[in-house]
Structures are given as C-alpha cells and as structure tokens.
Amino acid sequence: AQRVTQPEKLLSVFKGAPVELKCNYSYSGSPELFWYVQYSRQRLQLLLRHISRESIKGFTADLNKGETSFHLKKPFAQEEDSAMYYCALKSGAQKLVFGQGTRLTINP
Amino acid sequence: KAGVTQTPRYLIKTRGQQVTLSCSPISGHRSVSWYQQTPGQGLQFLFEYFSETQRNKGNFPGRFSGRQFSNSRSEMNVSTLELGDSALYLCASKDRTYEQYFGPGTRLTVT
Q1: Running DSSP on this structure, what letter comes out for residue A63?
Q2: At residue A67, does pLDDT exceed 80?
Q3: Distance CA B76, CA B61 (A)
Q4: Contacts of A28 (CB under 8 A, 6+ apart)
Q5: Which residues of B touch A (CB under 8 A)?
Q6: Nearest CA of chain B to the CA of A92: how many Å?
Q7: Which residue of B has its CA nearest to A37?
Q8: For residues A41-64, average pLDDT
Q9: Which of A33, B28, B45, B111 makes a 20 to 30 Å CA pair with B15?
C-alpha cells in the first residue's frame, strides 16, 4: 500500500537555524514525490517536486530511494517559512497520497 | 488566469441531509480532483474526473459521489450526512505537468 509518513506534527526552530522536515514513503513502483505548503489563510500550493531538482524559496528536497525518504531542507530558516507542510506521493496516474503534515514555526 | 474557485465557502448542514459542493477549475484544465481534509485523517483523496469521466476513486463510502460537466466544472455530493463528514473539502485542477492547483476549499460543518 502507498503511504507517506511525516513523523513530526510540530516543528519549531529559530530564525537563521537550519530546517529539516522529514518525509518517508512506501511505494512499490517508481515514486514521484512532492512537497506542498499551506501558509496561514492561503490555499495549498506546490512547493517543489523531486523530478524538477529545483530549489524554491531556499528549500530543497532529495529523493533517497534506499531510505525511502524525501526530506525537505533549508539551511537558514526565515520567519515567513512558518506554515503547514505536506509531503505527497503520486500514486498511480492520478491521485496524490498525502502525509499528515508538519506545522513549522520559525521563532524570531 | 483565475484560480480554482469553490462554492460555497462555508456550509452548515444537519445529520441526514445531503449537500452539493461545486468546483470551477482553472480555464483549460480538464482534470479535477477532490480531497477531504480533517484534523484527524489529514488530506484524503476522494475522486478525480477527467473529461466528464471518473478516473480514480479513493476509499470513501458510496454516499460520496461526484460528476463533471462538459465545461470541466465539477460537483461533489454527499448524501445522508454524518457528523464525521465535517471537514474542509478541497478541489484541485491539474495541468499537463501534473501540478495540481488547489482551491480555497469548502468548510462543511454537520450538526
């Protein structure tokens, strides 16, 4: 069965500190993974996808097939990074399986 | 381009009633997916429509149904509402790159 696990419901770090949001998945096929973000009072939006290998707002995520992980990282957290973050797995052709989400709070 | 719109934004219903939610995708997007978001279960996939056909369905009871019209607008219906159906219902439309664009959601409260 496809599953996405985000072990931390809440994560709090200080401004300027490194951030790592964990995501582990289980999937029998070739995975396609995403990170979505939801800022306060805004709609859910795509942050990045592993196939793009891009850095968005200073965030990067590397797919590690051996560890079945897709952790989201940023070297220096900013206050505007405070939000809810969801890791998602494309399951089959059309649907996304989401993790439970991690609420990230950046303290000044 | 205008984003995904959902109506109504808020809804209060009583147990046993039925409800219909509407979603208008981004112009040109032919795929519409529905998700249920609750504090306990998180985001769960309901179903996806493409060109008026349901292509995929999540693990929800038959009380949850949907449809898509020729203009790609989609509706979701929940019959015989239960307290546990209280949730934020999100609609997303998809372009060819598979990026899903989410609407603001309809918050349904069942009393």
Answers
A1: -
A2: yes
A3: 13
A4: none
A5: 3-4, 31, 33, 35, 42-45, 48, 50, 55-56, 58, 90, 98-105
A6: 9
A7: B102
A8: 89
A9: B45
